[in-house]
Design goal:
The chain is built from 3 helices and 6 strands. Strands 1, 2, 3, 4, 5 and 6 form a 6-stranded antiparallel beta sheet that branches. It is globular, with a radius of gyration of 16 Å. The N and C termini lie close together (about 10 Å).
Length: about 140
């Protein structure tokens, strides 16, 4: 499988920081989520399209490695790499990188497709799966 690589710029806002002026650890998850959403959007897949199929894309497992603190107003790049695509889930590796190329945070995220009524795992809708799979193949 070819890995998809995507980058999204993020700036640290005051609201992202703690009393010490550095990014609060939980906010890295927001940065990673935004980058995954923008990656889908770059493929022409809006989150609304999941909802049209009564499907949601939910995070099932997260592993974060916080390496170097980030301060207010920093400009960052958040990467998205698809490591694995299955019928009902995807595994991503992501990084938060500073302007000088320093690694601030890395993570592995497993996200699953769920039926929003039954709240159980189901196959990713074919049009969405096919679009992602086609991107991986090219």
């Amino acid at each position: 499988m070819k890995k998809i690589h995507f980058e999204w710029p993020v700036r640290v806002y005051y609201e992202d920081t703690d009393a010490g002026g550095i990014v609060y650890y939980a906010n890295y998850l927001k940065f990673l989520e935004r980058a995954r959403t923008e990656w889908l959007r770059s493929l022409g897949i809006e989150q609304d399209s999941w909802l049209d199929h009564n499907r949601g894309f939910v995070v099932r497992q997260v592993e974060l490695d916080l390496r170097e603190a980030v301060k207010f107003n920093a400009e960052l790049t958040v990467t998205v790499t698809v490591e694995q695509l299955k019928r009902a889930s995807m595994v991503f590796t992501q990084q938060v990188i500073g302007q000088q190329g320093q690694l601030h945070c890395s993570g592995t995220i497993k996200a699953a497709c769920v039926d929003l009524n039954a709240m159980r795992a189901v196959a990713i809708p074919a049009p969405i799966y096919d679009k992602i799979n086609d991107t991986i193949k090219t």
